[in-house]
Design brief:
mainly alpha, globular, 3 helices, about 5% strand
Amino acid sequence: MTTHGPVMPVWSCGGCDLPWPCPTRRRELRAEFMDAPVSLALYLGAYLVQATEDMPWTPAGVLHRRFLGWTRETDPATSVVRPSRRQPG
């Protein structure tokens, strides 16, 4: 079990006091949900809903980036650059 869980209603990390999910918890979540990215998004989406209720003064875009925006990022070491499929002309 991680020590980097959320401290509510302020949504800071219980392990390092950074905004939750902190970088450590993000790495842990990526490992836990490595083969299930949709499940990761659903899991964090539930937390996003709760955080919007706890912090109504925080802009929705900020919370979205914090809870979900990072989930589609790839690790630079493993990312693949794909050629564009644009048609000439």
